[in-house]
Design brief:
Blueprint lengths: L9 H13 L13 H5 L5 H17 L6 H13 L3 H9 L7 H10 L2 H6 L12 H12 L3 H10 L3 H9 L1
Helix pairs in contact: 1-4, 3-4, 6-8, 9-10
Length: about 170
């Protein structure tokens, strides 16, 4: 007799999410040519895709299952492609996204002065979100990656602030 339980691995869900994203107005996986079946499918709205991924992450948290970083990075990458910085900020503020070195680096790059300079460059995808820099620094401090904090401050030309932090 079946009990109604189903085991789904996170890497299987990641493939499903990638397929959903490929059928959206903002494909990010670069799968290239679309099959006849994919062309006939109505594109999924970014809000719907983000909601699906968030619901999956909520289920993992509710059942105390650790998130794979790849799920989180796919979500962040897609949010950035849709330029929905308000959702990103909310996810960070309410700690839906786990603190990690990779996420902190993404945030620092997103809010760096280099990102601000590349906004006018239409040859590459660029987004600038000023609060992300401080959010990334805070995340680095939480995970005690002091070298990365100093490096990020130096990269922004904040030498005195980097020296003060290094002395602490």
């Amino acid at each position: 007799m079946l009990s109604g339980e189903l085991i789904v691995f996170q890497n299987e869900m990641l493939e499903i999410f990638k397929e959903m994203i490929d059928n959206s107005p903002f494909p990010i996986t670069g799968s290239g040519a679309k099959s006849d079946q994919q062309i006939a499918v109505k594109p999924l709205q970014p809000r719907y895709i983000i909601s699906m991924i968030l619901e999956f992450l909520r289920t993992l948290l509710e059942n105390q299952i650790p998130q794979q970083p790849s799920q989180q990075h796919l979500l962040v990458k897609y949010i950035l492609m849709t330029k929905d910085t308000q959702t990103l900020h909310s996810l960070l503020q309410y700690q839906v996204l786990s603190n990690s070195l990779e996420l902190a680096r993404i945030l620092i790059n997103l809010g760096s002065s280099e990102s601000k300079r590349t906004i006018g460059d239409t040859s590459s995808f660029a987004i600038y979100y000023e609060p992300a820099y401080q959010l990334g620094l805070d995340m680095l401090k939480k995970i005690k990656s002091n070298e990365d904090v100093v490096y990020a401050l130096l990269a922004e030309g904040l030498v005195l602030r980097a020296l003060d932090y290094a002395q602490e």
